[in-house]
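Look at one such:
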Amino acid sequence: MSFTRFLFAFSAAVLLGACTPRSDTGGSLPPASPEKLPRWRGFNLDAKYRLEKNRPFNEEDFQIIHELGFNFVRLPMDYRIWIKDGDWEQINEEALKDIDQAVEWGRKYGIHVSLNFHRAPGYTVAKPEEPRSLWTDPEAQRICAMHWAAFARRYKGIPSSQLSFNLFNEPRRSVAPGDYARVVGIVSEAIRREDPSRLIIADGIQSGYAPCYEIISSRVAEATRGYQPMAISHYGAPWINGAGEQLPTWPLVLPDGKVIDREWLWQTQIEPWQKLEKKGVGVMVGEWGVFNKTPHDVTLRYMEDSLRNYQQAGWGWALWNFSGPFGIFNSDRKDVIYEDYRGRKLDRRMLELLQKY
């Protein structure tokens, strides 16, 4: 089923069964192009970023994001969710309906939706690793291009102000820039054969932290990350070796006396990407945030310096995550007094900080 057919069926269901009229505010979203991304502000919604945790997206999330004044969601997804019986050449149309619905809710609530292959055919930062390498294996490249082309056909006609494709998640430092550029080119070409106007965003190299000049010719925007220094953002995270060795402060003072502060963030995390912008490439922060073991006051000071920098640079951002250990809801921090918000535990101070910038 194409998204156009889905949208007709979805709208008919709303007209027949809903008590509240549909209010499509998608037209209010700013224009977006590979050369210049808007200053979107929003969240990663992680309902489909792992097969074992797969669940439908939640319309109330979109409602709340809109109500709180944000206009962007990134949907990191695991391709295994929509294949048939483990066969990566067979796409299960039924499994894509949850994604169709999320795209429609974005249109309904005036939220830009960015679809991301967090696990793409041939590449992931998670476990288990993929059996073939997207960066060197022509068959993995063919399959990945096939999947993105299917998405391009499905959502053709939706303006890029409302929908973008974020190709992969954080290519590792071991991925050669030339290999990355070749794959970005293959996949971008497959998308544009189906939908020439679709906005495409590619994460930077070196786990998303470094701009990739080799992909400029593919006419894609680029996304960076906002997790440095990891001693702040991932303190106590069980999947990071050595992440809980020293209780963090902000600014952070290293054993040699070096101070890590807002100026350091600007020089190391912003300025290298501004050089890419001068080449005519749009930039945004695809993920950033602080794990719930970092003291809350340290978290907020660090986040405010990051937000000031993003605002000064004119960049949009998506917090990881919306609800969960990095988010504004249900973060399970031990040093936060939560406020009840529609049955969710809201970190009001973090929310108001995000709204400020």
